[in-house]
User: Fold this.
Amino acid sequence: MNKIKRVYIEITNKCNLRCSFCAFHHRPFRKMTLNEFEQCINQIRSITPYIYLHVQGEPLLHPQFEGIMNLCDQYEMQVQLVTNGTFIHQYPKLASHPSLRKISFSLHSLDYQTINTQEYIQHILEFVNQYIESNVGYVELRFWVSDHLNEKATFALNLVKEMYTLKETSKPNSYKLDERIFLHFEKEFVWPSNSNNISKDCGTCRGAKDMIAILADGCVVPCCLDCEGAIQLGNIFTQSLVEIMNSPRYLNIIKGFNENKLIEPLCVNCEYRKRFD
Assistant:
């Protein structure tokens, strides 16, 4: 069985925002139960300890989010949380979870936030300070590329600069604010489900090879960009992960990538995948 590096888990596919840069899925709104999440963790931990709470939806909207983090602590998982940060002030104990190795704030959601920008950023920076003091993990602040910053994003960036000095790193558009705090200017991309840019059927990707994703209903897909479940490899609630990762469809995708061939139509239509060509 392929040894993957990380698994994305969509604990809820519902979000409080409707950002234009994020694909809006057409699946029924759903959240995993604690039992379902534990079922996922039980199978994932024999393959990798690294999980990302991210696909679609806002993880902090899950009504049992603390219970989910407690399970991650219990099973000694290594969690990366991706959040728009709206509700970070509602989780004063989040920084104390030893399983939380990294938290990424999608600050490019600022245009779609209804709360005051200064209040929003202050809540995030207050959490960052608390997290760095009580945890050994990392923080990532994400903006779109700097020449696309609008008024809100510019205001937020200036607040960050008042608190930290931006030091360039070896990675393009990446800055170190502190020993474990980083700021990145990300390139905006088009989700494959929204793209009409059909390419040739040759190319490769890290999807399926390094990662898989589990949607809120248990559907397993090759990567976190398959937000509609177009490439359904199986369902972890009714099948074992071992069975799914030994399925002909999964193995065929990997074989294709290894031979520079794109087997699935979604992969052919994916612009983000071209970063790996």
